[in-house]
Amino acid sequence: MAGHGADEHPHGADRLCEAGDRVYSRAVRRGRLPRREAERVPCLLELALLHPDPDDMDWLVPTSPQEVMTRLLRGMYDEVRASQRRVGSAVAAFEWYAGLGRQVPAPGGPSEGPAIRVLDGLARIQAAMDEATQACTTEVLTVQPGGIRREAELSEGLHRAMALRGRGVRMRDLYTHVARHGHGLLSYLELMGDAVEARTLDEVIERLILFDRTVAFIPANAERTMALELRHPALVEYLGTVFERLWRLAIPLTAPLPDTGIEGISHREQSIAALLAEGHQDAVIAERLGISVRTCRAHIARLSETLGAASRTQLGVRIAQAGLDKPRGPAVTVSGRESRTAR
């Protein structure tokens, strides 16, 4: 009965439910009442406002209102004392941390912000990005995973890109090859002109935005509703090095993707074949290449048909026999011109 009452009557003696108020008042007026009249209000027994009559267990007698009031006042007093102790502990802790703050200099020197700052919520992220955009004077490096960029995403950052372009800031963007098929991205790049240079890879790292090699932004959760603002010189330098190595391996958006050398197999199917050979599942491959699982499976089906494989196991053998179990060489720059590495 106790559990049932807790579910339907989640309250204390200081605030009875309507049915409990009615039954308890009746019990006080009459001095006692039949147990069956309290069956629908088990909260009165749980709160000890009613208890069995020792002379007749089929009847319930009420606890006097004076005793209930005394109990409530005692409980309130105990809660106030506990709250005072918690406040005192919090004040003491605050004073201790404040003392430490006066003794230890802030990371990066007194004039700089924290080396790592957590940005919780899209509004805070956008505000921090706007601040970094206003302070940027030289270059912005970005990595944009996820395949085709939605026009809403491009529009959201357009005002920052236009402001950077107006100040002559150089921008370099890395995308997956799938992004080449997005009309919104092509329109964005046409609008930005020479201010933005874009290249693509089979797959890229998680989103990265780097301003002037001094501040970087990366996601802090899978939903990208939280971000890390990084100003630690070693971290920022490391991320810049990662970007430059990916950039060197990437193919300019204006250049065609290299041919696979195998009739009927596209560059994307070649990339899927290499990931299949590594043992990745369809969902993982789709995420890494920035395509849907359905599209990924359609490419795998075409790959199986082209290679004459009747099962996934046989497909793995055919991939190895065709030399598709390793990614082909990327584009490299020779004397300022784009060329393809030997396959």
TrEMBL record:
Signal peptide start-end: none
Top-level taxon in the UniProt lineage: Bacteria
Annotated protein name in UniProt: Helix-turn-helix transcriptional regulator
Domain HTH luxR-type residues, every copy: 258-323
Pfam families named among the record's database cross-references: GerE (PF00196)
